[in-house]
Design brief:
This protein is mainly β. Helices cover 7% and strands 42% of the residues. The strands form 2 sheets. The protein has a 4-stranded antiparallel β-sheet with strand order 2-1-4-5, with no helix packed on it. The radius of gyration is 16 Å and the shape is elongated.
Length: 136
């Protein structure tokens, strides 16, 4: 977060018990460990929606990242995608969607989208639940 934005955030952002205090995304696993958000926290849990599409690059895992909006502390977990047929590299497209049940608990929903007409979807859906509480 940029310095001036953080000052504004600290001064004017009103937190309620309903607010999600972390972002949920993935790590690209590249040299810079690039974080790609699926959803950004900071709003009430019932107002947060997000979905991204990813193409797997010679892997069957996705690194999920939960990043605190206050400290940028991270918690990570690896989701392994089982049961998708072996396809050539970069021909497995997935959607990743986040849903919340309350400000700390929710799930990442991972769907196999196939890859066009060449590789039809398996219609498999994976649900990776999370419960994130930050130590104060």
């Amino acid at each position: 977060m940029g310095g001036e934005y953080k000052a504004f955030y600290d001064q004017f952002f009103v937190e309620t018990k309903e607010n999600v205090l972390f972002d949920v995304g993935i790590s690209l696993g590249d040299e810079k460990d690039t974080f790609i958000p699926i959803v950004n926290g900071g709003k009430q849990w019932y107002n947060i929606h997000g979905k991204i599409h990813v193409i797997l690059d010679d892997t069957d895992t996705i690194t999920l990242v939960y990043r605190s909006r206050h400290t940028e502390e991270e918690k990570r977990e690896v989701a392994r995608i089982h049961g998708i047929p072996k396809r050539p590299n970069k021909t497995t497209k997935l959607s990743l969607e986040v849903e919340f049940e309350n400000p700390t608990d929710g799930a990442v929903i991972i769907r196999d989208l196939g890859f066009g007409k060449l590789f039809p979807t398996t219609n498999k859906v994976y649900r990776k639940e999370f419960s994130i509480v930050w130590q104060k």
